[in-house]
Request: fold
Amino acid sequence: MARLFVEEWSPEYGASVDTDESLAPAAGQIDTTVEVDGPWEPIDGHDDDFPAVAFVDGIRRVDARLTIDDPAAGPIPGICGSFAAGATLWRRDPPRSEVESVRVERLAIFTEGAASDIPPLSHGLLYRTESVGSSDPGMLVSHFHTQMRRAEAEIALDLARSGYFVVADGPISELAAESVVGYIKSHRVSYLPPEVMPIMGRIEPGQRTPLFGMPSYKRYSWYLRLTRPAGGHSWSGIVRCEAPGSLSLAQVKVLADRTAALLPRFASEPHIDPRAPQNLVPIGALEKQLRSRLGDQHIIYRALREATMRQPT
Reply:
């Protein structure tokens, strides 16, 4: 029988499972036989004592809306935005964590192939000007988000090449190294067909589903449970992970077993993080540090207004 539950996540963050509509099936073919050609059962994780893990994430903020007043073309929209990306590095022996590899970038983005330089602000703040070459204002934020994701991927790639096991918040990108795992903490589509869906209620912390292939995206994926909150539903504490399809099945199984065993130790708690348990403690700490690196939004907004008012008329 179906039951009703109240989500643990604070409402301003949406929900770990998007229930505005029924969990929609994912587009594209899903292969549930890549690891198990038969009934699906929970698989225990395995901690292989990997010495160092890097948790990579980024945050972005629109600082101001812009308009170029072109006498011939009319008003041309733009945005000023800031983003920061970086990593929390966790080392096993001795156990310690620290935030490193932080990058902060500020962009002024315009539509229509237009461009207008933003004068230097106080405190040495500079915005780099770019254009999306499109008349669609919705492309402004999309382009901005893409630039942040590219910065995250470059950081993840550098850390993977330096010997870290990288857990990147969000889906993996084309820049990801083979040892990078994408970490998706909320669910808006269902990647599992109905015949294997009941496994979600049977996975315990430290366990995962069998791997499934996502040929359309050239990725492997799996679900794991971080915690089983008291009174939670079958998807409570569940996250999805991804690995590049260029890896062998044996390599992906090592990564999947490692995440199932290791990630539950980093699960957050509701009194600390409103997105607990899925927003991992190292990622939450990184987000806090990144927000501080962006600077005060109100001060930056005033500085932008003052800088544009100094332009010659």
Q: What stands out?
A: The CA atoms of residues 30 and 245 lie 13 Å apart. Residues 18-25 have pLDDT under 50 and may be disordered. Residues 138-161 form the longest helix (24 residues).
